[in-house]
Amino acid sequence: MHHRYDVLVVGAGGAGLMAALYAAKGNVSVACISKLYPTRSHTGAAQGGIGAALGNVAEDHWEWHMFDTVKGGDYLTDQDAAEVFAKDIIDVVYELEHMGLPFSRTADGKIAQRKFGGHTREFGKAAVERSCYAKDRTGHMILQTLYQQNVKAGTLFFNEFHVTDLLIEDGRCRGVVAYELSTGELHTFHAKAVILAAGGYGRIFKITSNAVTLTGDLMSIYYRKGLPLEDMEFYQFHPTGLAKLGILVTEGIRGEGGILRNESGERFMERYAPTIKDLAPRDIVSRSIITEIREGRGVGRDKDAVNIDLTHLPREVIEGKLAEITDLARTYLGLDPVKDLVPIQPTAHYAMGGIPTDLNGLCLSDGNGGTVEGLYAAGEQACVSLHGANRLGTNSLGDLVVFGRRAGIYAAQYARQVEFADLPDDPQAESRDLFDSLRQGTGKENAAVIRKELQESMMNNVGIFRNGPDMEKQVDILKDLKARYRNVTVGDPSKRYNSELIEAMELGFALDCAEAMTASALNRTESRGAHDREDFTERNDVDWLKHTMAYKDLDKPGNVVIGYKDVALKGFTRAFEPKPRVY
């Protein structure tokens, strides 16, 4: 089937819905493709809040938020992006409020705000209340609000469609090809502008907070076109996921006063971050937890977790402001946070890297300012480099709505100025070949077995702590897994709702993302933000204050070509940081 729209959005999470809404306001026809029903998108898993310097509880300014974003990103953040973000997010939060988002409130009726890790006043002097929240269901409320606004605006949704190819010719994107789950048919979507907002790829790891759908599909498809992925080595492990399960335990639980304790009951973050303790940035807290575990102070049967302690907090805070995570602990662990310590461990959570874009969401084709005409990206899938080497909590939801909005505005503006470009003669050819190889192959490999080996090996070799020998081993493991993947055959011959076929296809995408990440991490011989190397323990601004651009070697399968892009600086440098560096 063939469809035609001025602007096509891929993904219906926070970034996709915001982009679709603002494109629709631009007086163009808009359609949105989603793997899921929109309100089931992974943005709904974001619990703690959306950071904005409103100053409703304590004095705050956008310059402080910009500084925290740059410092939290370990100075790899593009500072022009941080400035745009810190200013725009204030207006966007009020805009969401006016759309009907039910924020929690202060006693005088303003949007409530609470502390969150890494957010400070006066350029690092003390923690500040900056996170705007709707109890611990902030992401869920953003999804509901934006979906309703899109229905009102007339956005057309294609739910349970899986994009299988980007139609890019002569440097211009002309649309996408997608697989309809309910019929098994391929559809061609012809568009003047395409916005990619399909989320991250956390499912390459064994323990992750990410939904099973987050396999990096569009990152992989972009990469397969010979286009770069930026800063893939930087992947954030959220310090608090429910032990063994990886289900997110919001940072808001520490913002409300939760304390991390080891086996002896010690509040160990006092040793690692004596100033702001449990509210240090996520990379520091994650490494501190793993260090406690490595040194034998973990809890549980396997001693591979630590406890989060809420028992000193009033019941009304736990069951009111932290209702969702309380329910999750009771349901999945059989523990009541009101009276029990809850075991947690770091969980693969968020990709700082992805498809490179400029400040308006336009996709970059290289590290020198080249672009892909008509193709935009926003959200976790994109890398405008707001987060640098490590994202601050609450900045993910802000990223979605600020840069989703900008992508929607500029994509609509572009679509109004151009005519439809011609499609390729057979736009579905590559997608058919992809499915035929999986359906008609004679190999004996099983996708589930390969997926398990991928997730376990990535967790072990390219996890929170990294070193050269382990990552070199992972390069070889991935080459072997990709060779075996070529012999995967899908046993289910059905066309409709063939989940085995979809999961096999997604595995191929995940392997590409793992390949780009591992090569980028092995290449960066320093420690910075979430990239912590045991063999190169110091940050090296002389050699490594630059973004990685990873390209698939189209001539030598399994090889990755590394390029670079300059970091945009704008006043904040390491010299600005108060000395000594103590959190």
TrEMBL record:
Entry EC no(s): 1.3.5.1
SUPFAM superfamilies from the UniProt entry: FAD/NAD(P)-binding domain (SSF51905), Succinate dehydrogenase/fumarate reductase flavoprotein C-terminal domain (SSF46977), Succinate dehydrogenase/fumarate reductase flavoprotein, catalytic domain (SSF56425)
Annotated compartments: Membrane
Cofactor note: Flavinylated by SdhE, about 5% flavinylation occurs in the absence of SdhE.
GO CC entries: plasma membrane
Bilayer topology annotation: Peripheral membrane protein
Residue sites binding FAD per the record: 11-16, 34-49, 217, 380, 396-397
Pathway: Carbohydrate metabolism; tricarboxylic acid cycle; fumarate from succinate (bacterial route): step 1/1
BP-aspect Gene Ontology terms: anaerobic respiration; electron transport chain; tricarboxylic acid cycle
Residues given in the record as substrate binding sites: H238, T250, H349, R391
Catalytic function, reaction form: a quinone + succinate = fumarate + a quinol
Residues annotated as catalytic: R282
GO molecular function ontology, one term from the record: succinate dehydrogenase (quinone) activity
Keyword Transport: yes
Keyword Electron transport in record: yes
Annotated positions of the Tele-8alpha-FAD histidine modification: H42
Domain Fumarate reductase/succinate dehydrogenase flavoprotein-like C-terminal: 451-583
Alphabetical list of PROSITE patterns matching this protein: FRD_SDH_FAD_BINDING
First-tier enzyme category under EC: oxidoreductase
Keyword annotations of the record: Electron transport, FAD, Flavoprotein, Membrane, Oxidoreductase, Transport, Tricarboxylic acid cycle
Domain FAD-dependent oxidoreductase 2 FAD-binding: 6-397
Family recorded in the similarity comment: Belongs to the FAD-dependent oxidoreductase 2 family. FRD/SDH subfamily.
PANTHER family for the chain: SUCCINATE DEHYDROGENASE 2 FLAVOPROTEIN SUBUNIT, SUCCINATE DEHYDROGENASE [UBIQUINONE] FLAVOPROTEIN SUBUNIT, MITOCHONDRIAL
Name listed for the protein in its UniProt record: Succinate dehydrogenase flavoprotein subunit
Native source organism of the sequence: Deinococcus gobiensis (strain DSM 21396 / JCM 16679 / CGMCC 1.7299 / I-0)
Gene: sdhA
